[in-house]
Amino acid sequence: MADTTTTRAYRSALRSEQAAATRRRVLDAAAASFVERGYHGSSLADIGARAGVSTETVKANGPKRDLLLRAFEQAFAGTEGDAQIADGDAAAALGAIAGADDWLAAVAGFVAAANARTSVLWIEFLSAANTDDAIDRALGDLLVRRHADYLSVAGQLIERGIAAPGTDPEASAAVLSFLWSPESHQQLVLQSGWDHDRYERWLADAARRHLER
Fold it and tell me: Could you tell me the fold of the domain covering 80-211?
């Protein structure tokens, strides 16, 4: 009986791993399709073909509006879900960096890389929210989480002495959300031709200039 139970548990774990891997492929494919064809121009069949799965498999991981939200989350943070980035492993690793300058450079690097992966997808997200109430609500929830993440960063800026002790964290979070938005990558890199290193340095410099004591 023990062997049977162990075998069933192993098979169940294997199926779960396979399902998770398939979902990641579907979300990666959805992101690529939305960037290339636009949200409204992408079909579930297109996404399935890119992911190497059937349309029915894509439907099982959908609907399309959910794929848009989750694809953005996965592309930006590396994993989907409603948890704040500030509570994840990446934030913990960044938080362990001792020097203020090194920490700011690392955080700016994280944001620069995430924006590079998602700036075009973000524009599609905003566009889709204009015509779909459910996507608009999901966007609102995402913006609330983004503000909370930047509030955490603002607190670190104050704690590490980059911003003055009397700095308003709420106002600082709003400034960071503007400066470090995917739109900044869209305008400076994709439209103005900056290379990635220049953009990454600008993120750190912009935060320092606007928030330092």
Answer: Tetracycline Repressor; domain 2 (1.10.357)
